[in-house]
Amino acid sequence: MSENSELTISVHPTTASIPSTTWNALASCGGGKPGNPFLEHAFFLALEESGCATGATGWQPQHILISRGDEPVGLMPLFLKSHSMGEYVFDHAWADAIQRAGGNYYPKLQSSVPFTPASAPKLLTADGSADTQTLLLQASEALAERLGASSVHATFVTSDEEAIAASANWLVRHDTQFHWTNDGFKTFDDFLDTLQSRKRKAIRRERREALIDGITCEWVTGSDLTETHWDAFYEFYMDTGARKWGRPYLNREFFSRITETMAESIVLMLARDGADYIAGALNFLGADTLYGRNWGAIREVPFLHFELCYYQAIDFAIAHGLTRVEAGAQGQHKLARGYAPATTRSIHHIVHPGLRRAVAEYLEDERRYIDLHNQELADYTPFRKG
């Protein structure tokens, strides 16, 4: 613990040691419930108490809280990590470089929502103070020195946080996701009318073929969510996750816990063949955005992935007046389905001067490439020109 004028900085080794009212007030800039569901205290607590994100899995909480007297004014969700899994911003080459030179990359400090590639603020303040956000960065640097960590990383940050970090001499990295934007559409056909003719026809054909032979889709949210729904979804999640990643990050208990504490922020989209569920997509609902997270299926049906993860999400967003759908990490195939390129940002403090120089040069070239690539991708969106 250290003090800066009237300010006290404390490090919390559990999420539970910070009251939910304190956490959520800072995550919403003093406005009550956070507009982004992944910033909710309940989400972090469920990850920890279910055993998904703990010291045992390489995610030891080290959350930084700044208070002025008895009043909390800043929070940085932070973890001490012994690996780079579950982050979706890849730094394995950086780890290899310093370890080949005889150094240690782990442990490192990571500010992120575990297993969640969705942009959300990481420098949480009661009043949006840039000074407090800078102090959070400085506190994380000091913590890295005290713990012997090689670096501090904050992933999927906002553009404002990027600017503050750059001013504090942190390194900046860019990447690409694909987001759908609601341009005041009243129906899915309104959205299709903005597309080139052949793209409209392709999407209509995909939707027909995905729901062939009587397959139906349903949305389940809030108090309608049951353990039966989660049993079905977890089977899909485990089957697909095991094939894609080898070891899925989330356990069955996590889904039960988030249903108990934040069911209204969950939208589970399930595909049914008769009485049997065959596939599902998990989404989280924010103030103006639907966030697609996990998908799975136990039967191969052409285009069902696109239907559940992309088209049903658009349907839901239009029906509920949402501004945007963020469909998760990577996936250039989303471009043809109306999801446009969007820049994501991360910020990095690297202690070792040699590694920092090498990474800085690499990131400068990478940012130029990403920014140019996103401009080129925008020319390939399916929308009618002019």
From TrEMBL:
Organism lineage string: Bacteria, Pseudomonadati, Pseudomonadota, Alphaproteobacteria, Hyphomicrobiales
| Database matches in Pfam families | FemAB_like
Query: In its UniProt entry, what is this protein called?
Result: GNAT family N-acetyltransferase
The residue range of the signal peptide is none
